[in-house]
Amino acid sequence: MTDLSIHPWESDLDWRNAQGTTRGGRWSDIVGEPAHLVAAIFALIMEPISTATASIGFTTLCVVAAMRLPVLWPIWRRMFGQTWIKLLLLWIVWTALSIAWSPDKQIGVDRLWHIKFFAWLPLLWPLHRYWKWLFGGFLFSTMVLQGIQISGEFFGATYKGASVASGMRHPTMAGMWNAIALSCWLFLSVAAGWRVMFLSIPMAALSAFGFFWAGQRAALVGILIEIALANIILGIVAKGWIRKAITRGVIGILILGVVYFVAGAQMAAKIQQVSKETTQSLQGDAPEIVEGRIAMWKMSLIAWEKSPIFGVGLGGYRLATAGIDVGYKRENIHSYDTSHSTYIMILTESGIIGLGLFLVWGVAFFVRAIVCLRADPVRIGAFGGTIVWFSAAAFDSFNTRGVFLTVGVIMIALAVMPRTTRSTTSLT
C-alpha cells in the first residue's frame, strides 16, 4: 500500500543525466522555458472555444517548442524510450500502413492527419516542472467553456445561428470537456486540502451544469465507469483512499443536490430520457439515436468480417459499409464515415492487429499511470480523466476527431508526467 503523502521519483523518467546543448547557452533558455509554459497554457485555454482559436493556440505551442529543439531533444529522446510510448508509436505506424489497402486513400490520409494531436504529449512533457500550472490551465479552459455555455443558456447568446449552451464547437466536445473537468474536481476534493476541497465543490457543480447543458450520453457513461473503476484501483494502491472515497461520495451527493436545486428540471428531464432509452433498448425497442449507433456497429462488424486480420484500411469505413443492409430505416445511415465507436472503428479499419496494438498500448499506459498514482492531485485528477475518456470512446469515434484526441492526450500526459522540480534548462 502506498501512502498518499509520498511523491516518488520514477527512475526511468529521471533525466538528470540527459545531455544537450543550446547555441545560446543556459541563459537563452531562461527565456525559452517561460515562453513555452505561456504558450502551453494559452493553447489549453484556446482549445475548447472554437476551431479557429484551437488552431492558433496549438500552432503557437508547436512554434515555440520548435525554437527550443536543441534543449528539448534530449528530453524527448528519453520520453520516446519508454515502453508505453513505443507501443503508441507502433499502433500509429500500423494505422498509417493500413492506408495502403484502404478503398478510399484520400480519407485515410485526411484521417491520419488527426494523429498530429498526439503531439500534445512531447509538447507538454518538458514542462513537467510546471505540472500544477498545466493542470490549472486545463481547468481554467473548462471554465472559459462554461462561461460560453452560461451566456447561451441564460442570455441567449448564439454562434452560427445556434445557442452556445452546448458549446461553440460540438456538444459532444463540450460534454467530454466538462465530464473530465468534473472528474478532476471530484478527485481534488478528496486528495487535496480542505481549502481546495471547498473550491472544488462549486467548480464541480459548474462542470456538472456544463455537462448537462451539453446533453451528451457518452460522457455520462464515462463518468459512471470512472467513479466505480478509479475508486477500486485507488483503494488498492493508495493507503486510506477508501475512507477518502466515502468523503468524496458525500461531497458528490452535496454537489448533485446543489445542481438539482438550481437546474432540477433539466436534470430530471435528462435522467428520465436516459432511463427511458435504456429501458427501451433492453426491451428491444431502442430509440432512434440508439438504433442508429447499433446499426453502424453492425455494419462495421459485417465489413470487418471480410478482412478480420488487417481491416478495410484507414478511411475505408464508408465505402466498405456501403450497401450493407442491417434493417435500419433511415437512408442516411450510409452517409457517415465513422462507426461512432473508437474501438469498433479501429477494429473495422485496421483489423485485429490494429485493435490489439491499441488495447495493449492502453493497458501499458494504465499500468504506468497506476505506478505513478500518489497524493499528487494532478495525477489523481488526470487519471480519472483518462478513464472517462477511454470509457466514453466506446460510444463515439474519438480517433477521427482532433478535439477529442486533444483532451484525451492532455489527460494522458498529465497522468504520467514525471514528478520533478528541475527545469529543462538545468536538465541540459
Can you tell me about this structure?
The protein is mainly α and 428 residues long. The chain has one domain. Helix content is 69%, strand content 1%. Strands 1-2 form a two-stranded antiparallel sheet. Strand 1 and strand 2 form a beta hairpin. The longest helix has 42 residues. 44% of the residues are buried.
Distance between the termini: 35 Å
Count of the separate structural domains: 1
Which radius of gyration do the C-alpha atoms yield? Answer: 22 Å
Low-confidence stretches: 1-27, 281-285, 423-428
Backbone shape: globular
Mean pLDDT: 79
Largest sheet: 2 strands, antiparallel
Oligomer: single chain
Helix/strand-derived category reads mainly alpha
The strands making up the biggest β-sheet line up spatially as 1-2
Number of helices: 17
Order of helices and strands: HHHHHHHEEHHHHHHHHHH
Helix content: 55-70%
Counted beta strands: 2
How big a fraction of the residues is strand? under 5%
